[in-house]
Amino acid sequence: MSDFYTSVAEALQAMSLIEVIGVITGIAGVWLAARQHIWTWPVSIVSVTAYVFVFLDARLYADMGLSVFYIISSVYGWYEWLYGGKGHTERQVTKVSQRELWVLIALVVVFTGGLGYFLDNYTDADLSYTDSATTAVSLMAYWMMARKRLENWLVWLVVDVVYVGVYLYKELYLTAFLYFVFLILATVGYLDWKRDLEKHAPARVKV
């Protein structure tokens, strides 16, 4: 039992202020997204900026690059939610088309193989292919969220389960807890967005 408490104490000491900021703003950002609140984007920018430094320290380079991309795509999502709807109005929840889904899956496979090979052969990255796969799927989910596709929450559910395992392995315990909370929030987000879609379905046209 003493070994357990020692491990917990060491883990707490290892948690940086930057990681704490990333966790708090990350939870807030996903909760706001589930509520379709526009402030999800600026809050998320704070979170992913913090995680650029967290992942750099953990040698999870694909995730670090993903965080940089999130900063850029958050600006895109911010604009899309405000003006991406028909007639430059607020974007509404829609479902992903079959063609769109297959294109995204193909891009995920190509991205995973290419980035995984590069990281495995030319860097000291840990978990190269796992890191690359979660990065690719996360890119897919983030783009779908920016476009307000309902199924983004289902993609997040899958990738967040993997992330919990990865961050426990890397001893990023607070971040692992963050992604466990994300699992709960993704479930809430899916149910809320689905109700909203069904409520307004007759009046909505996918754009």
UniProtKB/TrEMBL annotation:
It comes from the Bacteria. The chain crosses the membrane at residues 12-32, 39-58, 64-81, 101-119, 153-170, 176-193. Belongs to the nicotinamide ribonucleoside (NR) uptake permease (TC 4.B.1) family. NCBIfam families: NMN_trans_PnuC (TIGR01528). It is a multi-pass membrane protein. Required for nicotinamide riboside transport across the inner membrane. This is Nicotinamide riboside transporter PnuC. The keyword Transmembrane applies. The lineage of its organism: Bacteria, Pseudomonadati, Bacteroidota, Cytophagia, Cytophagales. InterPro entries: NMN_transpt_PnuC. It is found in: Cell membrane. It holds the Pfam family NMN_transporter. Keywords: Cell membrane, Membrane, Transmembrane, Transmembrane helix, Transport.
